[in-house]
Request: fold
Amino acid sequence: MNKHIHKYKRRKIGRAKDYIVYACVLPNCRHYLSPEHLEGKQFICWRCGNPTLAGVTTKLVAKPHCKECTKGKNKKKEEPKSNFKMDGHLPVIDIEDLI
Reply:
């Protein structure tokens, strides 16, 4: 058995093409997984070719890629700043502001 790191691509299978799987596209490999079982598996990135681990959002794309190759929509924009003072996960409320 030839073990390798799989390079997945989303495929629709079945008579009505209503069942989605991630199939390995490497030659002579018949391996496939359902999207639920993809998370945590190692795969080859379609963009850079490096091995990486599948995350929660990996099953949302047809050709999975790593986080380093993800094009962010808001990478250049800064996070909007809030006026709330935070203490842990709860905002700090000043009584004088409420009166």
Notes: Helices lie at 95-98.
